[in-house]
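Below is a complete specimen:
___
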Amino acid sequence: MVATHGSPHLTPQEYFEWEAHQELRHEYFEGAVFAMTGGSLPHADIALNVASVLRSHLRGRCKVRNSDAKVGISDDGPFVYPDVSVTCDERDRTARKFSRYPCLIVEVVSPGTEAYDRGGKFALYRRLKTLKEYVLVGTERKTVDVFRLNEQGIWMFMPYGEADEVELSSVGVRIPTDSIYEDVVLDLSNG
């Protein structure tokens, strides 16, 4: 994410109108906008694999959205672009600008985004009352970290590795790690 210099403080409505005319996607935080940088091919392949598997399992029950779909932390923002989001809430079924009630969010992490995805972005997502699972998928190694909200309101950490089957209890789906990384060429030079 890169700060967009020279942009004025925008209201949420001004942000939606302004972004509709931009070539790049921009996240919105407290009136400021930040350009979204492009991802790597492994990043794109992983996100597509996850979205495809979820879509095939959840068709007709839930909306599976890719990184072109915004999630609003509240009706006034912040507005962010997760790599994959799933909402089974009827209020999101006909949403036009952004989802507000996701139960599952997936971020594909790279060395440049991992700290933010684990820290600041996860803190934002935890403000979503409907969110039950937050998933971080590695691009350098076959790792999938699932953070799951338990019945006591505590976020539990479940790490999965190369030969595991990832359980996503929020949507009742199990995905083999191999399916997440199918046809993905990882950049092992940094790992």
User: Anything to note?
Assistant: The mean pLDDT is 91.
